[in-house]
Write a structure and sequence with these properties.
Oligomer: heterodimer
Order of helices and strands of chain A: HEEHEHEHHEHHHEHHHEHEEHHEHHHHH
Distance between the termini of chain A: 69 Å
Number of helices of chain A: 19
Number of strands of chain A: 10
Strand order of the largest sheet of chain B: 1-2
Strand content of chain A: 5-15%
Distance between the termini of chain B: 50 Å
Largest interface: A-B, 53 and 50 residues
Helix content of chain B: over 70%
Largest sheet of chain A: 10 strands, mixed
Chain lengths: 436, 331
């Protein structure tokens, strides 16, 4: 009986131990390689997290690097939607788990990262050979005490992409020089051309532009200050630039010039494929999206004209996580990926405009033409647009969120859910909630 | 902690007289003690793992969430907490988005649960007949349930697409104007309910079917001897026979509807999914929680929404109990 008793006692203890073990496993925090990368048998594994079409994986640069550095193995993960990507990144930064060695940072998040997460990213200021960037690009990812948290990939100078065949049907000029002249210097003229387009277009249900939010962004990003002033105070509700952009975008929406689509959301891609709109304000990086989604069937129908005014919409950085076990190797990889030659390569392949001065000056970029966009000299168009970008660009902590909220506010007008004053008020309330 | 809990539980047991009073010698008495411990203690030991895990993954988060909800905390800086007492709750009470989300949760819940359970009843009734390939139909009815929410929602999003979706194409072919399923309130809610209905009808039907098969066949025989039609049999024999299962599925569906999240999130996609449409026209409480926590990064407000949801569920069940008690008293 005694032995049987002790056996049972053991069973009780075992059951309890199993329970305790489950607790321990559930709560244990962090292993050696919290970022997925590491070194093993002389082989270095570097993990990357990116979003959208940054062009780094798509143009074969990672394979090239692996070939040149046989001991390096790169694992890249790409999220389609930046909002989803950034939410996950925030959660992982807070938890200190699940991060990649290299993380992409979108311009709208740069300020928040430099203000709140500076200690979690590695410094690039002492990495050699990284002094070839546009000065404003580097300042956007630098902290007040001079730490550089990442290196720039592309920037977003702006143009207008338009369908030549639709312009012809509407009785408008089709040559890119003449088209650019129609709206030179003033976004109001761009909307004015839209009214002519609507009157003149015969042959189906085609809207002038894809979304009011595209026009809004293009206008707002043409000013040095957008939603915040350089002291970090919110000025979105008093900044005349924002109000002006809002009113013009609302005009376009109310006049039925938009296809009521939401950029990068479902509906936009089939809209491109089926040609339901004639123009889209396009930052350089959007060209790859348009050509991919509009597909071969529309090759040669699209063209690119100079935008009414210069502006910078978007652009990204690559940062290295401080706790990465392969920090040195990752920084080296980032420096290589953002070097002038590689940036020029990405531009040549898919049209993302370099943030490197040297790359912008290279003949490869200057002479580039896009076959898809009717042979448009995109190197010259976007290169010139890059010169028009204001030298000073004030970023704010919640730029990305505020931009999304304004896009939704304009959607309210497009969908007929609200008049513009009401939509403006709703947008303001939502921003208060989001940033307050 | 685990060991001590078990011991404490076993030790708290009140002393009882030995089953055989006047036992011979200490060895025997010790044996009896072990025996008693075995009978009384073992069950606790065996259920302990569940309750330990429950404590770690349900009870602790619940308490911690309530603690967070009394603070101002941002996701990026979880270690910086500012005590605000019940401010978050007061603010939530006065927030139109909360009431809008609560209302959407109820309306989407009703237009997805009611048709779903009715259709499941009908389907189970049909599956209960003798028919060819009944196994095939039973398995097939479970397939939607086995599909992931994400996949189902993505497919339905394309089907309900405004310009090139299948539904609008079908409507157009019979001369009905296209519906902007995402942008308009009721169409969006109907579309989301469709995803829910599609996924869960078969699952509920199988639950009903299992219950129906437990109804003794002689009841049907007696009913048909009395001249009851198939429909009468369904109403007077089948439904009362599976009443407890119906109540169970209603409880399950209510909890499911309260937590509705994946379908509307993916239906809207991107920033629109998080806010439940540009006009919050299909934002559920689950989405509001997500928006506060993972778009606005306000963990305190997010936790407040979580607690409000929990309390709503408790309220629903209290009301249901009260009604039940009142009804049983009157009858």
């Amino acid at each position: 009986m005694g032995t049987l008793g002790s056996l049972r006692r053991k069973a009780v203890a075992t059951a309890a131990a199993v329970g305790a073990l489950a607790l321990v496993v559930g709560c244990s925090s962090g292993d050696d390689s919290a970022t997925g990368g590491g070194k093993k048998d002389g082989k270095v594994t570097i993990t990357m997290g990116m979003y959208g079409v940054m062009g780094i994986k798509e143009t074969g640069l990672l394979e090239q690097y692996e070939k040149e550095n046989p001991n390096v193995d790169i694992k890249a993960e790409i999220a389609g939607d930046e909002q989803t990507y950034y939410t996950a990144l925030q959660t992982r930064l807070a938890a200190g788990k699940g991060l990649k060695d290299i993380q992409g940072i979108e311009i709208g998040r740069a300020k928040e990262i430099t203000e709140t997460q500076a200690d979690k990213f590695a410094d690039f200021s002492d990495v050699p050979g990284t002094d070839h960037f546009l000065p404003w690009k580097e300042s956007q990812i630098s902290t007040k005490d001079g730490k550089v948290l990442g290196l720039g990939t592309d920037i977003g100078p702006m143009a207008v992409c338009y369908r030549k065949d639709y312009f012809e049907k509407a009785g408008l000029p089709t040559d890119r020089e003449e088209v650019a002249k129609l709206w030179a210097g003033d976004w109001n003229k761009y909307v004015e051309v839209g009214r002519d387009f609507k009157k003149g277009f015969k042959g189906g249900d085609v809207a002038y532009m894809d979304a009011a939010s595209g026009l809004f962004n293009a206008m707002v990003y043409g000013y040095p200050e957008q939603y915040y002033d350089d002291k970090g105070e919110l000025i979105y509700d008093s900044n005349p630039a924002v109000k002006e952009a809002w009113n013009l975008a609302a005009d376009a929406a109310e006049d039925g010039l938009t296809a009521k689509l939401r950029q990068f959301q479902p509906g936009w891609d089939p809209g491109l494929a089926n040609g339901t709109f004639a123009t889209a304000v396009c930052p350089a990086w959007m060209l790859s999206h348009i050509s991919e989604k509009a597909g071969d069937a529309n090759k040669g129908k699209w063209d690119v004209a100079k935008a009414p005014k210069g502006a910078n919409w978007g652009g990204s950085f690559l940062g290295v996580v401080e706790q990465s076990p392969v920090k040195e190797e990752a920084r080296k990889l980032v420096a290589w990926l953002t070097a002038p030659e590689q940036q020029a390569h990405i531009f040549k392949e898919i049209g993302n405009i370099p943030s490197s001065r040297e790359a912008l000056d290279s003949p490869e970029v200057k002479n580039a033409k896009s076959e898809y966009f009717s042979g448009a000299p995109i190197g010259q168009i976007f290169g010139a647009a890059a010169q028009e970008i204001p030298d000073k660009q004030v970023l704010g902590r919640k730029d990305g969120t505020i931009k999304d909220t304004f896009s939704q506010g304009l959607a309210l007008i497009e969908q007929g859910d609200a008049k513009r004053d009401e939509a403006w008020k709703t947008t303001g309330e939502r921003i208060e909630k989001a940033v307050g | 902690m685990a060991t001590s809990t078990t011991k404490a539980l076993a030790g708290d047991e009140p002393p009882r007289p030995s089953p055989r009073p006047g036992g011979e010698g200490t060895a025997r008495r010790r044996g009896a003690l072990w025996h008693r411990l075995d009978i009384k203690g073992a069950p606790y030991a065996f259920v302990a793992p569940f309750f330990i895990i429950f404590a770690a993954f349900s009870f602790y988060p619940l308490i911690y969430t309530s603690w967070i909800s009394l603070h101002d905390v941002e996701l990026a800086t979880l270690d910086v907490m500012e005590w605000v007492a019940f401010d978050n709750y007061v603010e939530l009470w006065g927030d139109s988005r909360f009431w809008n989300a609560a209302q959407n949760t109820i309306t989407i819940g009703v237009i997805s649960t009611v048709p779903q359970l009715m259709m499941a009843l009908g389907m189970a009734h049909l599956l209960n007949y003798r028919m060819r390939a009944s196994l095939f139909f039973r398995v097939a009815s479970l397939v939607p349930y086995a599909t992931s929410v994400a996949a189902a929602a993505l497919v339905f999003t394309m089907i309900f697409e405004r310009d090139f979706g299948m539904i609008n194409w079908a409507l157009g072919s019979v001369g009905i104007d296209p519906v902007d399923w995402e942008a308009d309130k009721w169409p969006a809610q109907v579309a989301i309910s469709t995803i829910v209905i599609w996924r869960w009808t078969g699952y509920n039907a199988l639950l009903y079917l299992a219950a129906m098969q437990a109804i003794p066949a002689d009841r049907y025989e007696a009913a048909s001897l009395d001249g009851a039609s198939r429909w009468k049999q369904f109403i007077h024999v089948t439904i009362p026979g599976i009443r407890s299962t119906i109540v169970f599925t209603i409880v399950l569906s209510t909890i499911g509807a309260t937590q509705l999240f994946g379908e509307p999130l993916i239906f809207g996609q991107g920033p629109n999914g998080v806010t439940g449409g540009a006009d919050n026209q299909y934002q559920t409480l689950g989405l509001l929680l997500y928006e506060e926590g993972w778009k606005n990064y306000q963990m305190g407000r997010s936790a407040t929404v979580a607690w409000a949801m929990f309390m709503l569920l408790v309220l629903v069940f209290v009301v249901q109990r009260v009604i039940k008690r009142l009804r049983s008293r009157t009858s």
